[in-house]
């Protein structure tokens, strides 16, 4: 009988990718997906540790799962419960101590070993069921062993993962780099994901071809520090940066219409990568480039290793290379020691640059990070108030950006059916959802769509040309800063 697997994913795109790969690892063991945890033979919580309350959310979810499992056991079934991801890495032992219902705790770098872990948990489950059937009382049942694997193994999980079996669809994620050596003083990622590591170009290209064979037309290259990529080149012992990798994928992977990458650090935004934005039409003119703050003093305290001026220079170069480029970013308000003047510098930078979309957060103290030990923490009420002001500005920029699309013609990659009969939903080059009437046969294809109107966060339009080139053509200058001012 086929076994059912339920995975709940928290956090960043890398976790989304990891969840897909865990499903791949478990498919040969007979596990297929379900979207109902109560029906699952195995549940994986793929967790995120980036901000507070993440761990608490995991524990309350585990409480709910225990109820589902008790119910399943009463019906003669069982459920393996696994906690994966960054909370598992940071607090693995604590999870097993506080939540004895958990069978498996595994970190982000060990999921290729899931089959062994599942085998151990399954043996333990079988032993318990046999004992129960033999009349052993609940208290005397053999314990669940609690498998813990939060190693940073020397071998790369990527060398041990099976080929992807669960198709990701028209748009797909591909991890090319993992981990982080930057140690921003607020951030847990270097501790939960480990040191920077880049996959070889050949391995990435093979995975990209498989994804395209399974129907992907757009691939987002992922890494915690994706533009620090430095992987082994296809021939010889050279290393390639991200710019060369993108050129290579664009040239050699037939049918790959769109390439994106995330998340970048301004420090690693080198000229060669910026040049790729001018050269490679498949590379979408939309870049997520977190700056965190507009104050040099705060950037320094955050250990971001660059000044505000450097960010301005990069943006200018990017816009020169690709005039239709739009930017998104991440911001933290209320970092320890942030004064009103520092915060106003962030607001001024946002006004100056103009972002199409952004994510903004209140600084959250993370155990074990240097910033958590700083004394001049900003009061919660001040953080709240600054976040509101920043978000009002960012939301206005988002609305302006979307509004200036009306009347333009954009290449749209259709992904799936919309809510209404005959309607499809796709994405613009700027990741805006676009609704238009189009036949199902257009799914997975790019059409030119005239944008007629806006609704909330999406655009509505009319297909003007179904045979648009697979590659989007820059509409020179239309979306540049000048046009928006
Ligand atoms: N590698 C990326 C970001 C990874 S985390 C980079 O270097 O930019 C995603 C975002 O979460 C960060 O950009 C930051 O804005 C936010 N973040 C990380 N740690 C945080 C913390 N302790 N408190 C608040 N926000 C945080
Ligand atoms: Fe975290 Fe900084 Fe690394 Fe990004 S660059 S993952 S914010 S330590
Ligand atoms: Fe969260 Fe880990 Fe990603 S902490 S943001 S899931 S790298």
UniProtKB/TrEMBL annotation:
Keyword set, alphabetical order: 4Fe-4S, Cytoplasm, Iron, Iron-sulfur, Metal-binding, S-adenosyl-L-methionine, Transferase, tRNA processing
Occurrences of domain TRAM (ranges): 403-465
Domain MTTase N-terminal: 3-123
UniProt-annotated binding residues for [4Fe-4S] cluster 2: 180, 184, 187
Domain Radical SAM core: 166-400
Pfam families: Radical_SAM (PF04055), UPF0004 (PF00919)
Cell membrane in keyword set: no
Binding residue positions for [4Fe-4S] cluster 1: 12, 48, 86
Signal peptide residues on this chain, from the entry's feature table: none
Enzymatic reactions: N(6)-dimethylallyladenosine(37) in tRNA + (sulfur carrier)-SH + AH2 + 2 S-adenosyl-L-methionine = 2-methylsulfanyl-N(6)-dimethylallyladenosine(37) in tRNA + (sulfur carrier)-H + 5'-deoxyadenosine + L-methionine + A + S-adenosyl-L-homocysteine + 2 H(+)
Localization (cell): Cytoplasm
The enzyme's E.C. designation: 2.8.4.3
Role this protein plays: Catalyzes the methylthiolation of N6-(dimethylallyl)adenosine (i(6)A), leading to the formation of 2-methylthio-N6-(dimethylallyl)adenosine (ms(2)i(6)A) at position 37 in tRNAs that read codons beginning with uridine.
Entry protein name: tRNA-2-methylthio-N(6)-dimethylallyladenosine synthase
Source species: Dongia soli
């Amino acid at each position: 009988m086929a076994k059912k697997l339920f995975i709940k994913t928290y956090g960043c795109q890398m976790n989304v990718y990891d969840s897909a790969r865990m499903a791949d690892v478990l498919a040969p063991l007979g596990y297929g997906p379900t979207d109902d945890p109560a029906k699952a033979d195995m549940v994986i919580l793929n967790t995120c540790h980036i901000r507070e309350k993440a761990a608490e959310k995991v524990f309350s979810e585990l409480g709910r799962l225990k109820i589902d499992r008790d119910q399943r056991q009463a019906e003669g079934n069982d459920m393996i419960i696994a906690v994966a991801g960054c909370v598992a890495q940071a607090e693995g032992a604590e999870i097993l101590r506080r939540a004895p219902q958990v069978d498996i705790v595994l970190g982000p770098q060990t999921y290729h070993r899931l089959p062994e872990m599942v085998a151990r948990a399954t043996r333990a489950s079988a032993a318990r069921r046999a004992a129960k059937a033999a009349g052993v009382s609940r208290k005397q049942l053999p314990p669940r062993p609690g498998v813990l694997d939060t190693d940073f193994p020397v071998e790369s999980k990527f060398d041990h993962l099976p080929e992807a079996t669960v198709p990701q669809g028209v748009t797909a994620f591909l991890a090319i780099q993992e981990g982080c050596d930057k140690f921003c003083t607020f951030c847990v990622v270097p501790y939960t994901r480990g040191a920077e590591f880049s996959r070889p170009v050949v391995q990435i290209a093979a995975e990209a071809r498989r994804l395209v064979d399974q129907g992907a037309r757009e691939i987002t290259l992922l890494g915690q520090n994706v533009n620090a990529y430095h992987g082994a080149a296809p021939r010889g012992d050279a290393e390639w940066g991200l710019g060369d990798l993108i050129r290579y994928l664009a040239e050699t992977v037939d049918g790959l219409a769109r390439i994106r990458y995330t998340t970048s650090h301004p420090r690693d935004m080198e000229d060669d990568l910026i040049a790729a934005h001018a050269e490679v039409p498949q590379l979408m003119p939309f870049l997520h480039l977190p700056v965190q703050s507009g104050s040099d003093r705060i950037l320094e305290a955050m250990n971001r290793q660059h000044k505000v001026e450097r960010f301005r220079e990069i943006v200018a170069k990017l816009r020169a290379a690709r005039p239709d480029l739009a930017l998104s970013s991440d911001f933290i308000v209320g970092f320890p020691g942030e004064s009103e003047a520092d915060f106003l510098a962030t607001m001024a930078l946002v006004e100056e640059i103009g972002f199409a979309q952004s994510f903004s957060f209140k600084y959250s103290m993370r155990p074990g990070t240097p910033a958590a030990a700083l004394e001049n923490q900003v009061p919660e009420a001040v953080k709240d108030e600054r976040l509101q002001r920043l978000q009002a500005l960012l939301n206005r920029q988002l609305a302006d950006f979307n509004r200036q699309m009306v009347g333009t013609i954009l290449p749209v990659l259709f992904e799936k059916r919309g809510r209404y009969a005959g309607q499809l939903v796709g994405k613009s080059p700027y990741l805006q959802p676009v609704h238009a009437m189009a036949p199902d046969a257009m799914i997975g294809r790019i059409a030119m769509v005239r944008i007629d109107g806006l609704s909330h966060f999406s655009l509505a339009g009319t297909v003007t040309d179904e045979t648009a080139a697979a590659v989007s053509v820059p509409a020179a200058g239309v979306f540049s800063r000048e046009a928006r001012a």
